[in-house]
Amino acid sequence: MGDIPIDMPESKHVKNIVTIGDGAVGKTCLLHAFTEESFLQDYIPTIFEKSEFDITVDGIDHVIKLYDTAGQEDYDQLRKTIYKHADCFLVCYSVDSRDSYQNVKPYWVKELKSVASHVPIVLCDIVIVGDAYVGKTNLLNRFRDNYFEDEYKVTIYDRADFELNVDNCSHVIRLHDTNCHKRLYLSRRSIYENASCLIVCYAVDNHASYQSVVYNWTREFMVVRQFVPIVLVATKVDLRKPGSTGCVTTEEGEILSKQINANSFIECSAKEDIRVRETIYEAVRAAVVGVPEQSKQNDANDGFCCGLSWNCCNIS
């Protein structure tokens, strides 16, 4: 079968957008409602359809070329010829069809990755929380700007947006740096609602921040959202010198990680640029993989002290 004549981008303002998803989820109705401002009452299976129009977004003129594809397996080769030059995919499911929802990752994302791995398709909202002075802002600054601030400055809120390629897959990342003050809880809560992963930080030279992981941060977060991946991060490991005492040990961090059912545990230093990049990459992996099965099993039991695990509050 020859390639479908999908248009190669003529300039940076010409975008090819392809809709995919199971049959009967409403892909054609979505495009028809946008282009014609009307709704199609009768379901008519679509094999292939293209719409082209001009649109202004944020003051910039664009030429948008929308491609509507068939969801049936019989047309997989036809779809793949359309994928090759796509700039963006609209991956659709219907809220009244759980099968269409469950097919998104194992079928549709897998199919388009095999042909168009260059297109960012995963949006990860990663939220950094922890007590004051644990180094949340420096973690973000080191990753984003390769910069470390020696003088402590209070952060109310900061966000960094960027694209990452992790494990040969493109991701669009929004990294949220939050303030720990109680009066800003409602602000944090609004950020939690869309979180794909939570980075919970404590500083190895501050045992109180270690205790706060359970008593404050995971508990606060799970009031808003359950079953969100967690990466536990020990910061300022450059302060833990050989033979020194008083710092939270690696073993204590590993115990805490198991108790809160974290996806992973990392020790890092923004000052010395130790494992900072790995920290963010692990958060992306956690967002993609999801919550460890153990967390879901725990939630099915009764008697948890804070909804995390049987022993999560028994931290010495």
Automatic annotation (TrEMBL):
What InterPro entries does the record tag this protein with? P-loop_NTPase, Small_GTP-bd, Small_GTPase, Small_GTPase_Rho
**Alphabetized UniProt keyword annotations:** GTP-binding, Nucleotide-binding
State the CDD domains in the record.
Rab, Rho
Gene Ontology biological process: ameboidal-type cell migration; cellular process involved in reproduction in multicellular organism; developmental process involved in reproduction; hemocyte migration; melanization defense response; small GTPase-mediated signal transduction
- Domain of life, per UniProt, equals Eukaryota
GO MF entries: GTP binding; GTPase activity
Could you tell me which NCBIfam families the record lists for this protein?
small_GTP
Q: What is this protein called?
A: CSON002280 protein
